[in-house]
Design a protein that fits this description.
Elements (H helix, E strand, L loop, with lengths): L1 H17 L5 H7 L6 H16 L3 H14 L19 H17 L4 H10 L6 H15 L4 H20 L5 H17 L6 H16 L5 H18 L6 H17 L5 H15 L11 H16 L6 H15 L9 H17 L5 H18 L6 H17 L5 H18 L6 H25 L4 H27 L4 H10 L1 H13 L3 H10 L3 H9 L12 H5 L6 E8 L4 E7 L3 E7 L2 H17 L1 H19 L1 H4 L6 E5 L20 H4 L4 E3 L3 H6 L8 E6 L6 H10 L5 E6 L5 H7 L1 H6 L2 E5 L1 E3 L9 E3 L4 E2 L20 H4 E3 L5 E3 L3 E3 H4 L9 E5 L17 H7 L4 E5 L5 H14 L6 H14 L2 H10 L5 H11 L12 H4 L2 E5 L1
Parallel strand pairs: 1-4, 4-5, 6-7, 6-8, 8-15, 15-16
Antiparallel strand pairs: 1-2, 2-3, 9-10, 10-14, 11-13, 12-13, 16-17
């Protein structure tokens, strides 16, 4: 009876996967008697198999179907536990004991165990795992070694059966299995054969685990596989060793943590090791040998290290080796998959003639389609059609126009399977590819037939409609995602959609719409969070052009950049609503400049300082800054994009003696987006200060800086030196910090480009001469039991090490909650730098403080000088009088500072009430080393580092 129903589930799934679009509701209604939890679990099981076989389209359809049906069927995580008031320990204990007795009596026969599980599926919930631990402990307490061994063997068999049970809630079943395996491990002798077997089982469960962090689960799997290999050596257990090596390789290949290049290298090493046992010539291993050959092909095709051309050649060789076993007669599906993989490798191939490689790729894709027909394998058919479309877009032979039309036709075929309802993710990806194909067609028309309006207008409209649909649908997918990190990855993935749409809008002369799409692609996560933190939380809606113009006053202009793969687009908006667009093809020149700039900064900051003016001159020329500037405005809002966040745009030279900030006398402010400016809450009060002063006691002028600033506030809380510890700040003084009107950090700082959330401000105890034991390398797993040791200590500068646990990291700043903060001043190094690996988001220390509720931040773009920074900060707070904006105060300070001679500086220090007598003596003694007519801080390095970000 159960087998018949299982077959009915599979038949219904097959019908749904292959029916015409739109027929699914009627099919489900006609088979409503099958729509139970068993059907949902079968959907999940089939989806997992499809995903493992690269059938992502079908897998996603089934997962979405199960999710939607689950709203009407009891699919909550704890089975029926919320509705079962009679549940108690004894009910679970009796069930567990019955299962264990059945395992023993039936010699672990699933024909006995599965019906028992099926009858009481409602007990297979999170409480089952909890009670399994208690029952096991009672059974094992006081028993001899032989009895314990027998009991844990039964617990392991039960765990395996629940893990493999096709009914119930898959996530809960895995949690129960993991708990069972852990009980077994705690009662098995480390180093024994059975101990290794359980480690392997636990690793497999972690690899498939649904609950918890996917990254952490994979780390658990890798650890367990490595533990198993301590016992399963090549010499003692060759077949088990090879299987575990293959499984470990798969885990490394999927790994999220650590360096991707390292992970692929480890995967290759383990796959290769498995082949020492999995040979083709052994009767029992040819299929496994071919499987591993194909896996190696995939690993080498995606390999980061080594020469790309050699990696692809090796991938091709592995795929061809797999085909020695995977023939179209014996293994038609595996043969077709490998044909498709070969097509991908030849399309990416570097050696040989590009035209020949693409032709061979096309022939491999067509071969795969001999098996992957639309009727038999609709998802694989669609995937291969998609690959053919990409190949035809890149094709060199044949007529260019014909190739593009062919690609467009292939993408439209894919959309017949990859529908919005069944495969929403693949649908968006295909729409994006189709939109890019239309852009290729437009490029061809503009180049070859510029006067052919009959083709150009409809192609432009098709591109517009395609990108618009893709963006709408991508936004719907985004709404289903949770967590900032997931949304950031989503936004990064769909950058290309917005780039294409902005280009299409500009080609259609829809400049305002182009600006709105550019805005929608910037700092969205940050703006969303700030919107939700308002007194009346709101769902963020796309900003309108009218709302952008409301940011302007008659004296204000706004310049917003947007960088695509092909051009630098500049939107210039002046009061009241005049929008001008400049399109600049020098994107490659900008990337080259950034690479040079970063290389110099990393290699020698002294040398970089001498070249800083040259870099800014190059940037001004690339951006054509003198051409795009509005002429009548005196205040400027700058909205940089991507790589432009690295530079002090206010310090761009206009002439030999004039900089951008000289042209705009009412100040310059920065923002990641217009929408962010619209969302920031105004905090008018400015009489409560919390300041951290020289936590590491090695910045003497920070003492002068904070001591000079504090008297300007009615209420001030200063944490000097050792008092400026992380513990003090986040515990004893947290309330003062979150209620401060101004938070001033006068300390060291550092930006981590590889892991931005680990950027930090160094507090007391945060710098150590060396780690407490031999040098720790990133990636080390354990030091004295501390698994995080390799992340805790990071190389800082000048041979010193930062202890992250004693620093305030960006991740921790995100957790703060400012209630009425007008300004956060980050008087430290590199505090304005952001993550440029992600074009669409804005992730850096300023992000954290804006996220936490600050109205604005002052932050630096490079490692700054102690004295010049201290003097600038003192001057800034003097200028920041009531009614003066932060941007205006910084602007006036920087203009004065860059032009001040030694005589001007001495006169200011002597006449300023900000310094006491000892401080004046100290500063004037230092400044007295310069001739009176020299401008000690006239170079951009000294006055240009800080930006006013926010309001």
């Amino acid at each position: 009876m159960e087998e018949t129903r299982a077959e009915a589930y599979l038949q219904l799934i097959h019908t749904l996967l292959n029916c015409p679009n739109g027929d699914e509701p009627q099919i489900l209604q006609d088979n409503s008697e099958l729509l139970d939890r068993g059907f949902l679990e079968t959907c999940e099981s089939v989806a997992a198999k499809l995903a493992a076989q690269r059938g992502e389209n079908g897998a996603n359809f089934l997962r979405n179907l199960a999710s939607h049906l689950g709203q009407f069927i009891d699919m909550n995580d704890d089975g029926d536990s919320n509705n079962s008031q009679g549940e108690n320990f004894q009910e679970y204990a009796n069930f567990i004991l019955e299962l264990l007795q059945a395992e023993e009596a039936s010699n672990s026969d699933i024909k006995v165990i599965y019906p028992m599980l099926d009858q009481r599926q409602h007990l297979l919930n999170s409480r089952f795992a909890e009670f399994l631990q208690q029952v096991s402990q009672r059974l094992l307490d006081g028993e001899n070694a032989e009895t314990i061994s027998s009991i844990v063997a039964l617990i392991e068999d039960l765990s395996i059966h629940i893990n493999q049970f096709p009914r119930g809630n898959r996530a809960n079943n895995l949690e129960i299995a993991i708990t069972g395996y852990q009980i077994v491990l705690n009662n098995r002798e480390p180093g024994s054969e059975k101990y290794a077997q359980t480690q392997n089982n636990l690793a497999a469960a972690y690899s498939k685990r649904i609950k918890g962090s996917r990254a952490e689960n994979l780390e658990g799997a890798i650890f367990c596989y490595q533990e198993a290999l301590q016992v399963r050596t090549r010499e003692a257990f060759p077949q088990d060793w090879a299987t575990t090596q293959n499984n470990l390789a798969a885990a490394y290949y999927s790994r999220i943590k650590e360096d991707k290049a390292d992970n692929i290298e480890k995967a290759i090493a383990s796959f290769t090791a498995a082949l020492e046992i999995r040979t083709r010539n052994r009767d029992d291993f040819p299929k496994r040998w071919a499987e591993t050959q194909n896996n190696l092909g995939e690993a080498y095709r995606h390999r980061i290290r080594g020469k790309r051309e050699e990696n692809i050649e090796r991938a091709i060789a592995f795929y061809k080796a797999a085909l020695e076993v995977y023939t179209s007669d014996n293994f038609p599906k595996r043969w077709a998959e490998t044909q498709n993989n070969l097509g991908e490798a030849y399309r990416e191939r570097i050696r040989g003639e590009k035209a020949d490689n693409i032709e061979r790729a096309i022939s491999f894709y067509n071969a795969a389609l001999e098996v992957f027909t639309r009727e038999a394998f609709p998802e694989y058919w669609a995937t291969t059609q998609n690959n053919l479309a990409i190949a035809y877009c890149q094709r060199i032979r044949g007529e260019k126009a014909d190739n593009i039309e062919q690609a467009i036709a292939f993408y439209n075929l894919v959309l017949q399977i990859s529908t919005r309802e069944h495969f929403p993710l693949e649908n968006v990806e295909t729409l994006n590819n189709l939109g890019l194909a239309y852009l290729k067609k437009l490029d061809y028309i503009n180049r070859e037939k510029p006067e052919d309006t009959n083709q150009k207008a409809p192609t432009l409209q098709s591109a517009y409609d395609t990108f618009k649909n893709a963006i709408i649908r991508a936004s719907k997918l985004r709404e289903l995602e949770s967590g900032d990190e997931t949304k950031q990855k989503h936004d990064l993935e769909w950058d290309k959609l917005y780039m294409g749409m902005v280009q299409v809008c500009l080609d259609r002369q829809s400049n305002q719409e182009a600006l709105l799409y550019a805005e929608a692609n910037k700092a969205r996560n940050l703006a969303e969070v700030i919107a939700q933190k308002q007194e009346t939380p709101e769902v963020l809606k796309p900003i309108t052009f009218t709302e952008i113009t409301q940011l302007l006053t008659p004296d204000t202009a706004l310049i917003e950049w947007y960088i695509t793969d092909k051009e630098i687009i500049t939107f210039v908006l002046t009061y009241p609503d005049v929008l001008t667009v400049h399109r600049n093809p020098q994107c490659d020149e900008l990337i080259n400049l950034v690479n040079d700039y970063r290389a110099d900064y990393k290699q020698s900051k002294t040398h970089w300082q001498t070249k800083l003016s040259d870099y800014l001159q190059r940037l001004a020329e690339i951006l054509q800054i003198t051409t795009i500037l509005p002429t009548e405005s005196t205040r400027l809002i700058l909205i940089p994009h991507w790589l432009l966040h690295l530079f002090p745009l206010h310090a761009l030279p206009l002439t030999d003696d004039e900089f951008l900030l000289d042209r705009f006398t009412q100040g310059i402010q920065y923002s990641p987006s217009c929408q962010l400016l619209q969302q920031i809450t105004i905090h008018p009060n400015f009489d409560q200060l919390l300041a951290l002063q020289n936590p590491t006691s090695d910045l003497p002028y920070t003492d002068l800086e904070v001591a000079s600033i504090a008297p300007k506030f009615a209420i001030s809380q200063i944490l000097p030196g050792s008092q400026a510890s992380k513990t003090n700040l986040l515990e004893q003084y947290l309330e003062q910090l979150e209620n401060a009107h101004c938070a001033h950090f006068s300390c060291h700082g550092s930006f981590n480009a590889d892991e931005p959330l680990k950027s930090f401000l160094i507090l007391s105890g945060g710098i150590i001469e060396e780690p407490p034991q031999p040098p720790l390398l990133r990636g080390e797993q354990e030091v004295n039991g501390d698994l995080r040791a390799s992340d805790r200590y990071v190389e800082w500068r000048e041979g010193k090490t930062a202890d992250i646990d004693k620093c305030l990291t960006l991740a921790e700043i995100f957790g703060l909650r400012f209630k009425q903060c007008r300004l956060v001043v980050l008087s430290a190094c590199e505090t304005a730098l952001i993550d440029t690996q992600n074009r669409s988001d804005y992730i850096g220390l300023p992000t954290g403080f804006l996220y936490a509720g600050a109205m604005g931040t002052l932050a630096s773009l490079w490692a700054v000088n102690d004295l010049s920074t201290a003097l600038m900060m003192v001057k800034f707070y003097e200028v920041l009088q009531p009614g003066v904006s932060i941007g205006q105060a910084l602007h006036d300070t920087q203009r004065w500072f860059k032009s001040a001679t030694t005589s001007d500086l001495l006169e200011w220090v002597e006449g300023s009430e900000s310094f006491d007598g000892e401080q004046k003596e100290d500063v004037t003694e230092y400044l007295g080393r310069y001739p009176l007519t020299v401008k000690p801080y006239g170079k951009v390095y000294h006055w240009g580092a800080f930006c006013a970000i926010g309001l």
